Each structure stands twice: as structure tokens, then as C-alpha cells.
Automatic annotation (TrEMBL):
Record PANTHER family: G PROTEIN-COUPLED RECEPTOR-RELATED (PTHR11319), OUTER MEMBRANE PROTEIN PMPC-RELATED (PTHR11319:SF35)
Origin: domain of life: Bacteria
Membrane-spanning segments: none
Name assigned to this protein: Uncharacterized protein
Signal peptide limits: none
Length: 466
């Protein structure tokens, strides 16, 4: 599947237009290898055919609903079409068993509307939908859609999952303990009473989101609800070739995770945390156990809670490479809040983020922040540190800090606490501070080490050491 195919398939033209161009070039090979793996594993699977869009369990009527097929897969039972689940199974959608109102053979879209009860998967299973534009599974706003309650592997592909409404976590899908892959799918318009409006993974489960769109989900307005799009309490989370956009939650609109988390070739855009009196956490991604972000864009997310982090809030260190963090807004750390561990940022752009207080681009409070071959541009903070606000060790290598703005001190960067700084082959230009230190305001008690450091055309005084 090419990126163009992906775009047509979902009718979401913004996807390819907003993803980084490198993403598009790399996507072909990634998808090709994923398809080969899927094909190889599929050879061994038993096929169970769904031929009815109804949601019922009626034996011997010649119709196989998705619910009946999942039960057959779970129990290795036989369906009304005489197909018997055996070990790992694959569910496909074919036929016109409902007298013309639903036809899984044609090119008109079909919807399976659930009757008030989630679909529980309890064995190794692939649900192979006909495409997110052709098959929708709708929770009808009265139950979660899927509960992946298998210790093994579950893959859900080629479907739109919507209308999920869970009283606790995982409005669209709850993954528990096993490995869940959501591929070539759209998860939209789901609600969780607790965490993870679209998807939630818990009990050390593994969640892979591949080539999918997680959009306009909500984790409710209750105090402490986290992860409007995706939540993961532990285990592993990977998001690749995907879009997470327009999701909201009390805390962390996009992705709230304490899993080992990797985001690659993806767009995290326009997610929002609604809490303002308390923490709020991040707008885009709140990563509590480290974050790897590659070839991705985190843009236009917002959080105005007390702990900052418009785009990303990361604890436990991380690595950001070939990525753009832009247009995010927060009380502080509008682009990124770096809370602990060593964070490395390589070949990335942090631009146009806006903080109501400190740290327009980045707010760093613990661990080491090392930025290499990157650009910190056009960020603003109403108080200190337009580009960077750092209470911890700050290393800049071959990096440009340009045209950032602080209302008070340190237009380019502001350092305080015990922070040591080491700037190598780094330029600060055209940064502005309302009071002093247009380029750099260094008030920390640590050491500074400057090698081939240039500060030009910043507001006066360009560089201040106190
Ligand atoms: Ca039946
Ligand atoms: Ca089975
Ligand atoms: Ca159809």
C-alpha cells in the first residue's frame, strides 16, 4: 500500500499533506515489510467468515455475525457457515446474507452497530476488515467496541471504530495484557469514563498503532481522566505511520503513557487537555517512562494546567530525532516539558510554541538536555526563556536559537538553579527579551563552557552572566 493509497482509502487528505516528507518516502518500505509479515503469519490461520452486519447470536440461521465469529474464535467453535475456529483465527467479511441491506461484497460502506455489549476477544485473532472506509463497527454510544482480553496476539485492521462508550478505560478498545495491533484503521468518536478515549492498554500489554488515525476521541471530563486519544498504563506502546488528532481529555488530550513508548512517522496534532486549575499534563503526549520520537510532528496541541507541556511532557529521558514540535501552547514548556532523565534532541525543529509563563520552546527541570543540529525558532514565553528555560544541565551542539521572545529575561535561553551549560558551535540570533539577556540570561550557579558560540543581533544585553 502506498501513501497515496492510504490517503484515498481514508479520505483524509490532510494525513499525507501534514506528515513530514521523509515519512512519505520511508513509508513504502515499512508497509511492504509489514504486509509480508502479515501474509506469512496468515497462512496458518483458520478463516471465519462474517456475512451479516447484525449484532446477534442466533444459531443455525445461516448468518454469521461478527459477535458469533468472535465467539467461535474464542471457543474454537463452529459457525453457521460450517467454519470451525481452531487455534489462531482470522475473521473476514464477505457475502450478502442480510437480504441486500448489507453487502460485504460491494463498494458501499457498511456498519455493524452493537446492541449494547462490547465484543470480547479472548484468543489469538486477526479481524481483517475491508477498509476503514467500507466497514464501521459502532458502539452506538452504549458500550465499548472491543475488549482484547487475550494474553496472545490480536490484530484489528481495516475498520473504523466509533461510538464506543466505556464506563471505565478504553472507549474504543481496551487491551489487557496481550499484544494488540490496530492497523489501517480509524478510531474516532469514542468516549471513556476513565482513561483512553480511543484506545487503552493496561497490565503490561503491548499496543501497536500502525497506519491508523486516532481522531476526536474523549476521555471524559472527570478529574484525573487521562489520554483522550490513547492511554497506556504500562508495557509497550508504538505508534507508527499514524495520526493522533483532535482528541481531548481532562489530562493529556493525545497520548498518555507510562509504557515504553515509540512514535515514528506520525503526526500528533491539535489535541487538548481541558484541566486548567490542576495539572492538565500535556496536550499532545505525556510520557512517564521515556519517549522515542522519530520522523514525527507534534503540533498545535495545548494544555493550560499547572504542570505545563503543550506538545510533549516527558519523564525518564528520551530521544527526539528528525521531528518538528510546533505551534503548541501551555502555561510553561509549551513545546516540551523535560521533567527527568536525559533527553536528546537531534536534527529537529522546535518552533512557534507559546508559553503563558516560562519556556516557550522547552522547559527542562531535571536530567540533562542535549540538543544537537537542531533549530529553536520563533518560540515565545511571557516571562523567562523564550526558546529554552533550563534548571538543569543544558548542552547545545551545532544548534541555532533564532528569533525567540521572552517578556522578561533570556529571549533565546534562560538558565537557573544549578544548571551547567555547554554550547558548542551554536548560534543565538535575533532573540528578544523584554528586560535583559536577549540571547542568553545565565543566572544558574553552575559552570559555563562556550566553544565557537556566537550571539548576534539579539536584544541588549545579548548575553548576561550573573
Ligand atoms: Ca447466526
Ligand atoms: Ca481460536
Ligand atoms: Ca457494502
Amino acid at each position: 500500500m502506498t501513501s497515496h493509497h492510504f490517503s484515498r482509502k481514508f479520505g483524509l487528505q490532510f494525513l499525507t499533506s501534514l506528515l513530514p516528507s521523509k515519512t512519505q518516502r520511508r513509508r513504502k518500505s515499512a508497509i511492504r515489510s509489514a504486509s509480508v509479515e502479515a501474509f506469512e503469519s496468515r497462512i496458518l490461520l483458520t478463516t471465519l467468515t462474517v456475512n451479516s452486519a447484525a449484532d446477534n447470536v442466533i444459531a443455525n440461521d445461516g448468518l454469521v455475525t461478527l459477535r458469533e465469529a468472535i465467539i467461535a474464535a474464542n471457543t474454537d467453535g463452529i459457525t453457521d457457515l460450517g467454519e470451525t475456529g481452531s487455534g489462531a483465527d482470522e475473521i473476514v467479511f464477505r457475502g450478502d446474507g442480510t437480504g441486500g441491506t448489507t453487502d460485504f461484497n460491494d463498494k458501499t460502506a457498511d456498519t455493524i452497530t452493537l446492541g449494547g455489549t462490547e465484543l470480547e476477544i479472548a484468543s489469538d485473532l486477526i479481524i481483517n476488515g475491508r477498509g476503514a472506509d467500507l466497514l464501521t463497527i459502532d458502539g452506538n454510544n452504549s458500550s465499548r467496541v472491543f475488549f482484547a482480553n487475550s494474553a496472545g496476539d490480536v490484530t484489528i485492521s481495516g475498520v473504523t471504530i466509533t461510538g464506543g462508550n466505556a464506563t471505565n478505560s478504553g472507549g474504543g478498545i481496551l487491551n489487557q495484557a496481550g499484544t494488540l495491533t490496530v492497523r489501517d484503521s480509524v478510531v474516532t468518536g469514542n468516549v471513556a469514563g476513565n482513561d483512553g478515549g480511543g484506545l487503552y492498554s493496561q497490565l503490561s500489554g503491548t499496543l501497536h498503532v500502525e497506519n491508523s488515525v486516532i481522531q476526536n476521541n474523549n476521555a471524559g471530563s472527570g478529574s484525573g481522566n487521562v489520554g483522550g486519544g490513547i492511554g497506556a498504563s504500562s508495557g509497550t506502546l508504538t505508534i507508527s505511520d499514524s495520526v493522533v488528532s483532535g482528541n481531548t481529555a481532562y489530562r493529556t488530550g493525545g497520548v498518555f503513557t507510562y509504557a515504553q513508548t515509540t512514535v515514528i512517522n506520525s503526526l500528533i496534532d491539535n489535541n487538548m487537555a481541558t484541566e486548567t486549575v490542576g495539572g492538565g499534563f500535556a496536550g499532545g503526549i505525556n510520557a512517564g517512562a521515556g519517549l522515542t520520537l522519530i520522523n514525527s510532528t507534534v503540533s498545535n496541541n495545548s494544555s493550560f494546567g499547572t504542570v505545563g507541556g503543550g506538545g510533549i511532557r516527558v519523564f525518564g529521558g528520551g530521544h527526539i530525532e528528525n521531528s518538528t514540535i510546533s505551534g503548541n501552547m501551555a502555561r510553561f514548556g509549551a513545546g516540551i516539558v523535560h521533567g527527568s532523565g536525559d533527553l536528546t534532541i537531534v536534527k529537529s525543529k522546535i518552533t512557534g510554541n507559546i508559553a503563558d509563563e516560562d519556556g516557550g520552546g522547552i522547559f527542562s527541570s531535571s536530567g540533562t538536555l542535549h540538543i544537537t543540529k537542531s533549530k529553536i525558532t520563533d518560540n515565545s514565553a511571557a516571562i523567562n526563556g523564550g526558546g529554552i528555560f533550563s534548571e538543569t544541565d543544558l548542552l547545545l551542539t551545532k544548534t541555532k536559537v533564532l528569533s525567540n521572545d521572552a517578556g522578561n529575561l533570556g529571549g533565546g535561553a534562560f538558565t537557573t538553579g544549578t544548571a551547567n551549560i555547554s554550547f558548542t558551535k551554536t548560534k543565538f540570533r535575533k532573540n528578544i527579551a523584554g528586560v535583559n539577556g536577549g540571547g542568553l540570561f545565565f543566572e544558574s550557579s553552575g559552570n559555563f563552557d562556550l566553544f565557537k558560540f556566537k550571539a548576534k543581533k539579539n536584544s541588549e544585553t545579548q548575553v548576561v552572566f550573573t
